Each structure stands twice: as structure tokens, then as C-alpha cells.
């Protein structure tokens, strides 16, 4: 039910793969206002959620993080679902797009200018 709640809030999911094409995680991304929210589920007891500035170059390996929750999938999902949209907001709006890559991989490219 928690994943359905994220989808209802506008999260889009992708499934990063290794070089052989095997799924290594389930990743949900929501771009809103001036931030990017991301959740990465690797196992039932291994999850992380982040809120990043909208201009972060690589959402899967960010250099700057505004908010973080890490632990079990249940706890991290609950933390993310209770995080207010305006918490840790920065100025501006986010623009960009997902670019598909090899083996089902994708990368978020923030728009510049």
C-alpha cells in the first residue's frame, strides 16, 4: 500500500540494472517544486530515501542531500510519506528529463539555463 501511496503522489519508478541486465533495486523519483525526492529499495531491510536540490546532477549518486532516511523499507517509506512537500525547500523550480540508457538503465538530466 505504501508504494501505491507514492505513485498517487506522483512518484515514477525505474529499476536500475547491472551490466548483465539484472535488476539491482527499485527506485522511485518525484520531481516537485525545487527538489527531487528519491527512494531506493534494495531489500526489505535495506532502503534509503533522500530529498535533493533540483539541480543535483546525479540523483542516484548525489553530492548534496537536504534530507535522508535510511533503514528498513517500512520505516523509510513511512518517513518519506510523512515528509512535508515544503520541508527543506530551495528556491526555483526543477526542470529536466529522464534519458534511457543501456540494459534498462536511465539517468535524470537536470535542465540548465
What does this structure look like?
The protein is an alpha+beta fold. It contains 2 helices and 7 strands; from the N terminus they run H-E-E-E-E-E-H-E-E. The chain has helices at 2-8, 73-82; strands at 12-14, 26-32, 35-43, 46-53, 67-71, 96-100, 106-110. It has a 5-stranded antiparallel beta sheet, with helices on one face. Helix 1 packs parallel to helix 2 (73-82). The longest helix is centred in the last third of the chain and has 10 residues, at 73-82. The protein is globular and about 40 Å long.
State the main characteristics.
5-stranded antiparallel beta sheet; 2 helices; two-stranded antiparallel ribbon; alpha+beta; 113 residues
Layout of strands and helices, then pairs:
Blueprint: H1 2-8, E1 12-14, E2 26-32, E3 35-43, E4 46-53, E5 67-71, H2 73-82, E6 96-100, E7 106-110
Antiparallel strand pairs: 1-2, 2-3, 3-4, 4-5, 6-7
Helix pairs in contact: 1-2
In brief:
With 113 residues, this protein is of the alpha+beta class.
- Give the SSE order as H and E letters: HEEEEEHEE
Low-confidence stretches: none
Count every beta strand, where a strand is a DSSP E run of 2 or more residues. 7
Report the total helices.
2
Fraction of helical residues: 10-25%
Instruction: Walk across the major sheet and give the strand order.
Output: 1-2-3-4-5
Termini separation: 39 Å
The biggest sheet amounts to:
5 strands, antiparallel
Approximately what portion of the residues adopt beta-strand conformation? 35-45%
Structural class: alpha+beta
- Kindly report the average pLDDT value: 84
Shape: globular
Amino acid at each position: 500500500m505504501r508504494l501505491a501511496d507514492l505513485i498517487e503522489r506522483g512518484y515514477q519508478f525505474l529499476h536500475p540494472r547491472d551490466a548483465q541486465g539484472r535488476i539491482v533495486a527499485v527506485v522511485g523519483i518525484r520531481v516537485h517544486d525545487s527538489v527531487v525526492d528519491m527512494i531506493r529499495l534494495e531489500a526489505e531491510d535495506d532502503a534509503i530515501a533522500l530529498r535533493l536540490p533540483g539541480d543535483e546532477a546525479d540523483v542516484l549518486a548525489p553530492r548534496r542531500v537536504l534530507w535522508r532516511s535510511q533503514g528498513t523499507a517500512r520505516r523509510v517509506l513511512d518517513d518519506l510519506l510523512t515528509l512535508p512537500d515544503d520541508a527543506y525547500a530551495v528556491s526555483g523550480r526543477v526542470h529536466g528529463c529522464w534519458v534511457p540508457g543501456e540494459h534498462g538503465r536511465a539517468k535524470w538530466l537536470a535542465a540548465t539555463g
